[in-house]
Amino acid sequence: MCGLRKQDTMFKSLFDAAQNSTFKSPFTSVNCQAAPPASAPTSSAVVTPALALKDVAPRQLSPNHDFAAAAAAEGDSCEFGSNHYFLLCGLGGIISCGSTHTMVVPLDLVKCRLQVDPAKYKSVFTGFRISLAEEGVRGLAKGWAPTFIGYSMQGLCKFGLYEVFKKIYGDAIGEENAFLYRTGLYLAASASAEFFADIALAPMEAAKVKIQTTPGFAKTLREALPKMTAQEGVAAFYKGLVPLWMRQIPYTMMKFACFERTLELLYKYVVPKPRADCTKGEQLVVTFAAGYIAGVFCAIVSHPADTVVSKLNQAKGASALDVAKQLGWSGLWGGLVPRIVMIGTLTAAQWFIYDAVKVFLRMPRPPPPEMPESLKKKLGVTGEQ
């Protein structure tokens, strides 16, 4: 009985507290205003955060910080232009370049053989037929390991350092000049990035071409590396570096500059709505289209040097100039059609995967550049540009 009496007393107390609560009704009006202070605070008074911020005007962001602020509001995983951002860009490059180049190894193998032995491999279809007859289906995958390793390293440097150099050069020339001369900015940043990317790629590229174009030399990367070292030393892995620069730097300059400007033009003249109104999927489709257009031009401008690289890594002791003279003008363009198909698809896929990685990792994805407000005022420009 004593226990029941105590429970009744407890429930009665809770009931009385609920009845007297300010929030007993959803329509209750509550006066939350604080009573006016009796006197002005002295120097020893405690300053609350509300009092401290009362008379502080909101801080205005400069144009350079607008995108970073918007990114933070959308919950991006990193800040645009931070070291974390650059590292994730490098990761995107590894995934995009390593995977795409490995997927097209069979076509790359036939292309290389067509370049170094056009008398035997007269066309793409003939090249596939002969390769299948001599080595079977597994033979078409020759060189996949150096391809995957080499182009993953290249992708790390290509995409990661491109973003780094683009920011460094853009900050150096200022916001207005970065917009006015953005094509030159893209060209300079991509050329700088590819310079280092090819140093990372050269050893694996040399091994790949040797495996694919020298019959009976080696079937795997583990077999090729010691043989190449024994025959020519470390120089075997870097003798194709200069022609590799000749091939890859123009290719990458076209790849990035053409892509950036094509993307800008597609959103301005082709896509029927602003980029901000497009879904992530629609944006990726535009990215793929811009990448393919850029890839076609990439293949054309870099093809002669690509032919020299393929022939140089097959010919022992020859120089790039010797190979170019031996091939002649027409020989430099051997295998152009399969390379356009390969590079066009490859470049489009790389940009698509790179952008998809950014979406997946919730990385900042800046829209195409717009004219800064300060430049609009100087030029007297009104409206969207």
How do you describe this structure in short?
This protein is mostly helical and 385 residues long.
Number of strands: 0
Q: Overall 3D geometry? A: elongated
Mean pLDDT: 81
Q: Round the Cα radius of gyration to an integer and report it.
A: 31 Å
The total count of helices amounts to 16
Taking the sheet with the most strands, its summary is:
none
User: By helix and strand content, what is the structural category?
Assistant: mainly alpha
Distance between the termini: 85 Å
Which residue ranges are poorly predicted, with pLDDT under 50 across at least 5 consecutive positions? 21-73
Strand content: under 5%
Order of helices and strands: HHHHHHHHHHHHHHHH
Roughly how much helix do the residues carry, as a percent range? over 70%
What does this 3D model show about the protein?
The chain is mainly alpha-helical. Helices cover 72% and strands 0% of the residues. It contains 16 helices and no strands. It has helices at residues 2-20, 49-53, 63-73, 83-103, 105-116, 124-139, 144-173, 175-180, 182-213, 221-232, 235-238, 241-270, 280-314, 320-331, 336-360, 373-379. It is elongated and about 65 Å long.
